[in-house]
Amino acid sequence: MLLDSVSKGETKIGRWGYDANIDALPYVDELPQHWKDEVDKEIGLEMRRSVKSPKDYLAELPPFPASKFLPGSLIDQELKRVATGAALPPMDQARFRLDPPALNRSNDVTAWKKSLDNAQTQLEHQSLRLANLELLFKYGGNAWKANLNHLEASIVTTVKTRNDQKAQIEAINQERKLQQEVAGLELKQLQEEWVALIEKNMTIVEECAKMEVGIAELKREEAEALKVVAEVEVAAEAPTVEAEIEIEAEALNGAEVEVKAEAPEAEGTGAQEDATMAES
Predict the structure, then answer these.
(1) How far apart are CA 109 and CA 121, in angstroms?
(2) Over pLDDT 90: what percentage of the chain?
């Protein structure tokens, strides 16, 4: 889930330059079990394909801050030794022994002075140990008790700090869980609305398709009906063969009647002419 800083418009960039904002809902998201195996498989594949070595990843880290110890001090020398990977030199035990000078230097005053200084140093060290033991016998009990009281107070303070941090973490987790649950309900409602709208759109598309099919069918039927009407009209306007035969027969019958009607008139005219010629 996006955190409060993200909701305010802030952008967090990771060490490698990518956007480090968190947009998951771990308290709400339900991921299939096989997804983890797929993710592990992809991670392994990416690791096999990677050409970087561990030191390359360490090289991307910021440089180690400069040492604040004095140059040449024992700690500075030890840090440099560890950085270079050099072996730890063996401990010099000569200062813990009371060795006289070597036989070839038995008459060397400087060698005897060095041995004497070593003996005096060890003697002083032993004297300091005796003084510390006397102080321990005299004040050690009270000092130990004071130290225990200090440790107990430190423990109480540390436990209180830990409990406070734990309570803050729990409060943040509870707040995140509540926010994610509210966001999950909202996302679920929006998803249900989206599914309902998709189903509604599919229903509308299906009904539109049915209506288009019906319209196409009506257009086809209308075209067929218009075709039939046109054929009927053409058939009504154009005479058939039988009608033409009847018309021709009637015309022939009419011509015969006219011929018969003209024939008697011609015969009468001839008789009259014969009669006239006889009288003459």
Answers:
(1) 18
(2) 28
